[in-house]
Model the fold of this input.
Amino acid sequence: MAAQGTDAFVISELLIREIEAADVIVLGTPMHNFTVPSCLKAWLDHVMLMGRTIGSGPDGKFGLLADRPVYVAIASGDILSGPGAKQPDHLTPYLGTAFGCIGLSSMFVFAIQNTARTEMNELVDRIDQLRPTISRTICDRPVQAAETA
Ligand SMILES: Cc1cc2nc3c(=O)[nH]c(=O)nc-3n(C[C@H](O)[C@H](O)[C@H](O)COP(=O)(O)O)c2cc1C
Done:
């Protein structure tokens, strides 16, 4: 049991150092059952580590990593959120909370929604239409050198 615990901490440390070495984080994820897929949840469980990436004080938890932009591309079979959505979106707010909790509070989301009811050529068109927004969002932000706070 102790050995397994140690192995888990080694993996956590490797994954956290990947974040610390990154100027920006780019994440592509589908919506699975209204939230993140289990593999992304497993990654979050590794990098959200009390005393390493999360501090705790009288006012609650706070992030220990230096902020850097997190760009998230989401694909969802149905409409993700907003008017017309017939499902709750636990993915976007959860990811914002999780990244914010470790100190990464600058999250930008790009979504391709309703993939289950959209032809591939239309999806490609929609991705093309998103490109200028993605470029503006990413290029207008000065990239800070990654460092731990
Ligand atoms: C296990 C599973 C659960 C899913 N749950 C949802 C869901 O809750 N809401 C939704 O809009 N789409 C859901 N989908 C559809 C995916 O989000 C959609 O197919 C998306 O385009 C997947 O991206 P990908 O093809 O790049 O994996 C689910 C798909 C799978 C396989």
In short: The CA atoms of residues 72 and 124 lie 18 Å apart. The pocket of flavin mononucleotide is lined by residues 30-34, 75-78, 87, 115-116 (CB under 6 Å). Residues 2-139 form a domain with the Rossmann fold fold (CATH 3.40.50.360). The longest helix spans residues 2-21.
